[in-house]
Amino acid sequence: MVTLYKKIGTHSIEFNIDQHQIVEFIENSFFDLHDKKSKTDLNIKIALGYGTPFVDYKVNISEENGKVIFKRSDYLIQAEHSYSSVNIFVNNELALKHALMNLYSAYIVYHNWGLLIHSSCAIQDGEAHIFAGESGAGKSTVARLSQPRELLSDEATLVKITPDKITIINSPFRSELTEIGSSEIAPLKSIQILHQSIINKRDTLKKADALVDLIDKVFYWAHTPEETKNIIGLMRLLVERVPTYNLYFKKDETFWELIS
Amino acid sequence: MVEYIRKSTFETVHFDGEVIILNTDNYTLTKLNETGGFCWSLLNESQSVESLRESIFRHFETENNNVQGDIEVFLEGLLECDLIKVID
């Protein structure tokens, strides 16, 4: 058994792993935890050998013996109620990556810390801009076109939400653009809902419409009444504090003229 | 006279007069405009089409004859979203 200490967002994680290939994946995917506290926020045990390779994104959420269970064809997550102690069983590396996104998303909603949003995020003049959309709407295209601006995410943005401020934290959940930026944190200035188009155009969304559009871009939560309440509260703070726009963009970097 | 009342499993958010209701049983979102939001606020107590119509007339100082049809469609919508129930 190998133990690794890592960091996701502002949380400390202890990973306990049996298999060598998983150790390598965790080593390469997450930042090291330098200031190891006596007790970590999350304690995660990982084992291979579960289920079948990826079939679809459907996750079954249930409760058994006081544990929250997230089940997909290629992964199984068993979490204690506060998520402090978690067992993950996976089929392969892709399953592990998705399982960890699922777990962390549920964890930060449970603790009312923030949201993991299906989107990319780039920094301009020290401020973060989110680009959200359905699959295929252009999140990673926008991320690529935004370089050399620093990217804080390319598929899953880590949004820390407090009543005073909304902050984006460098996301370790990357699809392809694996380089890790130097700034780890930036205030959130705007949110764009992406639509591919032949011209560039940006319209302000009403706050109610922004909430409706954004809530299905949140990755996972445990669907208990308490957590649904948390999601609604976090989303309300987000759209109240940060303007949301429909961004119609053509596939070059000129859309940035509408943003800064 | 048929009367309606809110179910209890929902969360609401208010923005600039509009109301969003999340049904916490089936996770559907319903967005209401100002008049809809006003009716929703009244439905914490039992209401009929007629009582809602009278309240709308008083609150918005209008005498629009189409209101009755709008209220019926509105209540049907809320029933479909499982946000209100008919009182027996």
Structure description:
The complex is a heterodimer of chains A (260) and B (88). Chain A is of the alpha+beta class and 260 residues long. Chain A has five helices and 16 strands. In chain A, the strands form two sheets. In chain A, strands 3-1-2-4-8-7-6-5 form an eight-stranded mixed sheet, with helices on one face. Chain A is globular. Chain B has one domain: Outer Surface Protein A, domain 3. In chain B, 40% of the residues lie in helices and 27% in strands. Chain B has three helices and five strands; from the N terminus they run ββββαααβ. Chain B has a three-stranded antiparallel sheet with strand order 2-3-4. In chain B, strands 1-5 form a two-stranded antiparallel ribbon. Chain B is globular. The relative contact order of chain B is 0.24. At the A-B interface, helix 4 and helix 5 of A face strand 2 and strand 3 of B.
List the helices and strands and how they pair.
The complex is a heterodimer of chains A (260) and B (88).
Chain A: E1 2-8, E2 11-17, H1 20-29, E3 31-32, E4 42-48, E5 60-64, E6 67-72, E7 75-79, E8 85-90, H2 93-110, E9 114-124, E10 127-132, H3 139-146, E11 151-153, E12 156-161, E13 166-169, E14 185-196, E15 201-204, H4 207-215, H5 225-241, E16 244-249
Parallel strand pairs in A: 2-4, 4-8, 10-14, 14-16
Antiparallel strand pairs in A: 1-2, 1-3, 5-6, 6-7, 7-8, 9-10, 9-11, 9-12, 12-13, 13-14, 15-16
Chain B: E1 3-6, E2 10-15, E3 18-23, E4 29-32, H1 34-42, H2 49-60, H3 67-80, E5 84-87
Antiparallel strand pairs in B: 1-5, 2-3, 3-4
Helix pairs in contact in B: 2-3
